[in-house]
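User: Hi! Is it possible to get a structure for several chains at once, not just one? Here's what I have:
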Amino acid sequence: MILKAKPVTRGVVEGEAIVSHMPISFTGGMDPETGIIREPGHDLEGRSVAGKILVFPTGKGSTTGSWQFYAAFKRGHAPKGIINVRVEGVVAVSAIITDTPMVHDLEKDPLECIEDGDLVKIDATHGVVEISKQGT
Amino acid sequence: MELNDQQQKMLEGENGSGVQKAMEILQAYGDCYEAERLIPVTSVHVAGNFPVLMDEGIEWLEELAGDGTKVRVFTTKNPEMFDPEQVDEMEIPTIYQVRQRRIQEALKSLGLVLTYSCHHYLVGNVPRFGDHIAWASSGSQVFANSVIGARSNRDGDHVALAAAIVGAIPEWGLHLPENRKAEILIDVDGLKFEEYEPTDYKALGWHLGKQVGMKIPAFVNLPSDMHIEGIKGLLYTLTVTGATGLVHLVGITPEAPTAEAAFGGAVPGTPDITVSQKDVDEAFYEISSSSAEKVDLVIFGCPQCSIQEVQEIAALLEGKRVHPDTQLWICTSRWVVTLCERMGLLETLRASGARVVSDVGAADGPHLYLKEKGVRVIAVNSARASYYAHNLFGMDTWFGSTGDCVRTAVSGRWEGKRR
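Assistant: Yes, the chains can be modeled jointly so their relative placement is included. Here is the combined structure:
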């Protein structure tokens, strides 16, 4: 499946998707030492987003989140691409300062089209997302 | 986003790599919010300290400052981890001293004014009504929008620093008058305001923030003589459980002399949200996360204590002694410490066993090393401090009035309300 999207940053990346249906705060919500989501009650609690294509609705919480994302990135524990339903400043800036390919506002709801484990390619430069279902 | 010739040159690196990095951030940020242009900012405030920056954040700052990059706009800095004048008596670990010094050198080189204060509007960073500003620090940002009538989005540090270096910010969100209109009506009629202390306004803010979310609310039927400490209590707490950037306090907010002005036209016939005293009482209990009797530390100053608050604490402590197994900290800015010294307050407070700590706030910085020293249960009069100390550092927290907290410091056990 190929979907049009609005670019937040530039660049192309391909990887395995991890999908959350809840907003994410990088300060307090993600452990920069491991990339594991640590917010109690979060649908990704206890799972690592490191090296994945992270798909979630939007950002929330402290505006210091971009510092925590940057630290996770430098330690190799950040997601390698981001797809949001709707862009939010903290997540956008996190992607901008780490050159992480990121898009939002897809022509179809990414939370319905993408499942955990799907192979997803983000072309943020051209605003295109390519989804290959696992095993097909 | 369109750039003018000068801005285009900044983006191409003609003014150095730090300016180029700042412009790249603003360009991408402006594009994702579909801003049409950059507009000048008059005031910037930067928030992050070591617990969130970590070593990588320090390196990012050092790289930004590396080629002589300077801010073009008056820029102040939020609190740090410890009071640099009390490192020995407070046994601050060397690893933190080294890191704070590196942050300080990078910020100084960038040209920031090192206020180390979150009441920066009391120590010289005062925008005018209608000014475009970039304040990273959700509490003071909502204060600037709602009490002063300056215009700031919920920008993080990277955007705020970039705005300070370029001297401009993408024009979107709360910078545009059409986006500053109230979206929901909150009627607070019926609450027992005649008995309210600032702490009760914090409980009110805690309850309402969850319902407000990112929307712009208009409050009607607040008392017309509401004190600034009550206003701060309400606003700073609304941004803990919610993420609103602007609150119209009808009769107080410069843009909201009337409800019609707040909504820019018709006011909803029935309020979207009403609140009972029972809701506020319930929220009051909910802010506490502890059930322990013994309290290790009573800590004031989130936001940092004003001189009036220090005077109130000193009056409550008069003739009393802080319990030997409990600490009492008053966190504030260096300017307020200077006033305390001049007025003899510092001596009185020290004699009672209290500690006046400069350059830190009660919500985050110090908890990193306090925890290592065995501090587990804390008492605060700030809902914001309770939330962050509990969620970021795992502290057990009690929330109550200033009087409750002072009595707790004296007896060593929690003396305030409990469920």
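DSSP finds four helices and ten strands in chain A. Helices of chain A lie at 26-29, 65-74, 89-98, 110-113.

User: Great, thank you!
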